[in-house]
Amino acid sequence: MRPILLALCLALASAFAAAPGRAADRFRFGLDWLAEAEYGGYYQALATGIYARYGLDVAIRQGGPQVNQSQLLLAGRLDGSIASNSYLVLNFVQQQLPLVAVAAFFQKDPSILIAHPGRGNDSFAALKGKKIMIGADTRAGWWNFLKQKFGYDDSQIRTYTFNLGPFLADPEAIQQGYLGSEPYLVRQAAGFDPVVLKLSDAGFAGYGNLVAVRRDTVEKRPDLIRRFVAASAEGWKSYLDGDPGPGDALIRRANPEMTEALLAYGREAMKRGRIVEDGVPIGSMSDARWQQFFTQMRDAGLYPADLDWRSGYTRQFLAGH
Predict the structure, then answer these.
(1) Same domain, 99 and 220
(2) Residue 71 contacts by C-beta under 8 Å, 6 or more apart in sequence?
(3) Residue 227 within a domain
(4) How would you write the chain as a 3-class SS string?
(5) Which of 9, 39, 290, 310 is 20 to 30 A from residue 85's alpha carbon, by CA?
(6) What is the CATH number of the domain that holds 183?
(7) Within a domain: residue 31?
(8) Is residue 320 part of a domain?
(9) What is the β-pairing status of strands 132-134 and 157-159?
């Protein structure tokens, strides 16, 4: 653990250890999908008692295709939730929603495109004009980056069905995916390794796995957020670089479809890809990255030039601030 983050974690943990009679503060935290390795740091912090050491009583609530965690957060039924990507944060600003990002636990967006090997689809540039299966959220999000940078067109879009059947059935198929899951699932189902094109390698500046809270919580309960961010960072460090067993056990309890092998693959993919730890303190955000992302998306026509993008996040709860 980096010295600054370690010092902050120890200081906060000591403060709460020194007050044994203090009741733990409740924090209801919503995921944007079902439990999996990509949320391992939060489950690890819960399973190993890290949240408890910070005086927090955390309840992790899974998401899913029919769950809108942002609405639940706005309604006060959650204290924090994951904003999947930087688009959601700037959409909060554009729609004048009182939500703000306080940490980014994925320094790189783990979104990918996958293709069959040996078909000439081994670069983003090579996919111009070819059929690509993507979902509605992607069409409204990072697809616009690919259009702006590589000249893609909406006529290329085909429906993404959230299963591998159509991809495996067509050797020319290309579809969206997630670094920690689809490559493994293709190998298991069909015995080959797909071409994997990582969005971050194309120069996409967006963050992933951001923690969003209501603006009134920032104003009225800053210490609560500071402890949650610090404890989550410690949980991620433990999950990736220590024994992930406790976190994995909670994940599998919440989502029995998760296998040990898939969890191990997802964790190793995050480590190899430097998704969480990328030379900066865990959870970090920078003004420069946010400006780069905004500029990319402004140039792609998604946001007006006068959007107050800086109001969508705050760095006050991060290590060193």
Answers:
(1) yes
(2) none
(3) yes
(4) CCHHHHHHHHHHHHHHHCCCCCCCEEEEEECCCCCCHHHHHHHHHHHCCHHHHCCEEEEEECCCCCCCHHHHHHCCCCCEEEEEEHHHHHHHHHCCCCEEEEEEEECCCCEEEEECCCCCCCCCHHHCCCCEEECHHHHHCCHHHHHHHHCCCHHHEEECCCCCHHHHHCCCCEEEEECCCHHHHHHHHHCCCCEEEEHHHHCCCCCEEEEEEEHHHHHHCHHHHHHHHHHHHHHHHHHHHCCCHHHHHHHHHHCCCCCHHHHHHHHHHHHHCCCCCCCCCCECCCHHHHHHHHHHHHHCCCCCCCCCHHHHECCCCCCCC
(5) 9
(6) 3.40.190.10
(7) yes
(8) no
(9) parallel
- For residue 170, the model assigns a pLDDT of 97
Quick check: 66 pLDDT over 70? Answer: yes
pTM over 0.85, yes/no: yes
The two tokens of residue 108 are: 């790189």
- For 97-106, what is the mean pLDDT? 98
Same domain? 66 vs 198: no
Residue that finishes a domain, picked among 187, 202, 217: 202
Q: Give mean pLDDT, residues 55-84.
A: 94
Domain that holds residue 131: 111-202
Residue located via tokens 């965690």: 69
Residue-wise pLDDT tens digits, 157-195:
999 988 899 999 999 999 999 999 999 999 999 999 999
